[in-house]
Structures are given as C-alpha cells and as structure tokens.
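Our consortium's second objective concerns turning raw sequence data into structural hypotheses that experimental partners can test. To show how far this objective has progressed, the report includes one record in full. It was chosen at random from the queue rather than selected for favorable results. The single chain below, 139 residues long, was entered without modification.
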Amino acid sequence: MLDLSSAFIYTFIMGLVILCCRLLPFIFFADTGKDKNNDSSRQEKSIQKEKFKKRFLSFIEKTTPPVAMTVLAVREIAMPIKEAFTAKGLMPDFFLAILPVLIASLVCAILYLYAKHNALISIFGATIVFMVLKHIFNP
C-alpha cells in the first residue's frame, strides 16, 4: 500500500504523462501556416519535414506495441520470481509458484505464432491457461 505522499507523486507523474500524450499530436502536427512566398527552398524544407513525420509515425507504429507488450510480459514474469524470495532465501515451492507463469508465457508465444500474429487470441488463450494452472498449482 502506498503512503499518501507517494500516491500524490505517482498521481502527479501520471497526470504529466497523460498531458504529454494529449499535447504531443498537436505539437507534432502543428501547421505553421502556408508560406506566401513560393521559395523553392522553403517548399523543399516543407517536403522534407513531411517525409520525416511519415517516417517517424511509421517507426512509432511498428515499435510501440511490441515494446509495450515486452515490458508487460517481463514485469508479469518477474513478479512471481520476486515474490518467491523471502527474507530467509528461496521459498520451498519456488518452482510451483513460477510454473504457471512460464507455461502461460510459452502458450502465449505459441498461440501468437500459430494464430498468425493475432495478439487478442494469444492473450486470451494464455490468460485462460494461466488461470487454470494457477488454481491447479495453488489450491
């Protein structure tokens, strides 16, 4: 449980992140106005700027979902491992604690490849497998 000051700090940070996410499109796609002069150098710079925007958005589209999924997966795999360590050392049932997570992760990867990169099927399938295994290994 968080204390009050930590909760305020986390709330403030989340507010800043949301604000930046809301402002970024307006800053990125801000139109500086059309040039009244038809200078070729200004038009060339404008064309280069548009090409950069398209390449940047293409890069963001391709990399953001896999990076977010990787961060979430590593966090969820690391959580039971962290919980398995106690002050006295490793819990006696360490492998039983992490086995459902590892099997569900493997099922998720296999379903993702088998379902032709359909993330929804792999996430739902792995979640169901995890819940069943969690009830089997931790009654």
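The partners drew two points from this record. Residues 70-139 form one domain. The chain has four helices and two strands. Both points have been shared with the crystallography group to help prioritize constructs.
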